[in-house]
UniProtKB/TrEMBL annotation:
This is TauD/TfdA-like domain-containing protein. GO terms for molecular function: oxidoreductase activity. Keywords: Antibiotic biosynthesis, Iron, Oxidoreductase. The keyword Oxidoreductase applies. One of its GO terms (biological process) is antibiotic biosynthetic process. SUPFAM superfamilies: Clavaminate synthase-like (SSF51197).
Amino acid sequence: MPSSPVAAALDVELRPDRPAVLHVEPPGDPASWAAAHRESLRAQVTEHGALLVRGLDLRETSRAGAVFDRLAGELMPEREAFAPREAYGPGLYGSTPWPANQPMCMHHELSYALEVPGLLLFACLTAPGEGGTTAVADAEEVLRALPAAMVERFEREGWLLTRTYNDEIGASLTESFGTDDRAEIERYCRAHAIDFTWLADGSLRTEQRRGAVVRHPLTGRRCWFNQIAFLNEWTLDPEVRAYMVDVYGEEGLPFNTRYGDGSPIGEEVVQLLNTTYEEHTRREPWQAGDLMLVDNIRTAHSREPFGGERHILVGMAEPHRLADSAPMPEASRR
């Protein structure tokens, strides 16, 4: 297998159908190993967008958390979550709870927030019996493959995320905002360019407009960076979508995405986005103890359906405020 010249001694394997894979001999102290190789590992992530490190034997939360700390320092607390996660410490979470038989399609973590994580860290404490791969796709390649007219519209208008918080589906107000105090939630929304409306039943509806194409803060390259497809109604299982529309109505779905001008995104557009992601997907099945580092701006990731127990630890780090992910100039408060 060809190896990158930056870390040839580390045996980085490159294949077009999977992320870069680095094989290491099990170190006695993986945290010390991670600290010693931090710069080389980060260089590989910058070069390839994602790096799977195999051999660290990260099967315990404390062991994986120590490696995350040495590689990334302070982890980001999650805000604006769309589903609750189990927390294992400051910034240390379990993967998003999502039905095991349903895929989580390609997305960039928290791409709808004003402050986004530049680096994602995953540790596989328990590998699933089958499936469950965290696959990746290069956002530069995806952008180049999409129709120019589609990209031009999203780049001009941005995209709109709508959310309706309720007590039945998705994260609660406390889980998403860290508080259930209305005044605090309103302050957060105003500070983060989120339009909000309190409904008669006490639930909260929000809208936030974000850029769909951004320039990478290190490379300056344009990336397709958003969650337009993942959080759209047409990505849902058809039966789930029909149920949610029946219960909440078209305008009351827990989450949905629209064009930046507020008009609906057609099913054919969402299908094209997901098909394009699939054409550029790279995957490598998890093995217990694996570490995966992902450049969250350069690289989208997904979670495939699985069987058996699956325990993945997640950390987010290196926050960025991307100038071109901010609301469009014509956006106004509603």
